[in-house]
Amino acid sequence: MTPETLDVDELLDDPARRVVVCCGSGGVGKTTSAAALGLRAAERGRRTVVITVDPARRLAQSMGLESLDNTPRRVPLPEGTPGELHAMMLDMKRTFDQVVEEHADPARARQILDNPFYETLSTSFSGTQEYMAMERLGQLRESEEWDLVVVDTPPSRSALDFLDAPERLGRFLDGRLMRFLTAPAGSGPLRLLGAGVGMVTSVIGKIVGAQFLNDLRSFTSAFEAVFGGFQERAERTYRLLQDPGTAFVVVAAPEPDAMREAAFFVERLASDGMPLAGLVLNRTHPLPEGPAARLGAEEAERAAEELSRDGEHPVAEAALRLHAERARTRGRELLLRDRLLTAHPGVRVAEVAALAGDVHDLTGLRWVGARLAGGGHEGSAGAE
């Protein structure tokens, strides 16, 4: 099976394209892919910002910056570069604080920001990072300061967390349990419980701690005034992700779990009406070009066995065995790729071959970007 090529340059050059989202499971090279796409876009004339949430801070290192924070910083590029590249690292708590300050009056905002429960929610609650990544994306896009915003999504357990987190956080903040725990004693569900409410809250207080329960009540009471703004912004950003000016690039490594996540994400994007640009298959092991590439694994192994019997050509034998192993690896990669393409025909693909080490500078990012733009597929696994 020969897949359609993902034309990265066409994707980046389109002036109507304002957002590119790199998504996929953790550890597949999303950060490097996002940075490489951002650099290539800048070198092709676009004013670009890359937002990353990678805790390893490799993006800053690869771009020659000391560090990144919640404010976009300009990346020094060679003189004569037609565009600009900026980069930032998501500070989810600072972003959460900014949204609270925007939607609440100063007194209520201070009440929320000083609440111990808010401290926990804004720094460690599951889904907060993904929610704030979408929030920051919305802020950057609405500023109209950038031709292109490239997003490196959080290194979540599941690639779908990026799309599910805003709704999950909203359900938690607006859920029945929260309303039950924080309702005044003489109103709502607590009033219906009558005399038993004291015993219920006492038991809950012993489980979570009386002070925690008080903090939770205080937080919810203050937060109710700004919750609607949070929901509205999340819905607006979700609509932005469905806009034709947005493109999703699913990044995967040729491994079963990563390809399974990639397939789930492709299905989810289709069901939610979100535009998929294509698949980046990262860290692959293509065979060298030339006649040797047509030598299958079993054929190479048989030839190595023949050389082994006469014992006169140890170097050639070792080379054949190495080729056989490489061919098997490539066959497995193509089989995984073709399974995804069979289930989702029409998905465009670009490949990036595995490197000997990590990308740590602009030269490495430029190489990755050129490889992305060049495609670089081979035939189907069946040809191996």
From TrEMBL:
CDD domains: ArsA
Coiled coil residues, start to end: none
Any Pfam family hit: ArsA_ATPase
ArsA/GET3 Anion-transporting ATPase-like domain boundaries: 18-289
InterPro entries: ArsA/GET3_ATPase-like, ATPase_ArsA/GET3, P-loop_NTPase
Superkingdom: Bacteria
Descriptive protein name: ArsA family ATPase
Annotated source species: Nocardiopsis coralli
Lineage of the organism: Bacteria, Bacillati, Actinomycetota, Actinomycetes, Streptosporangiales
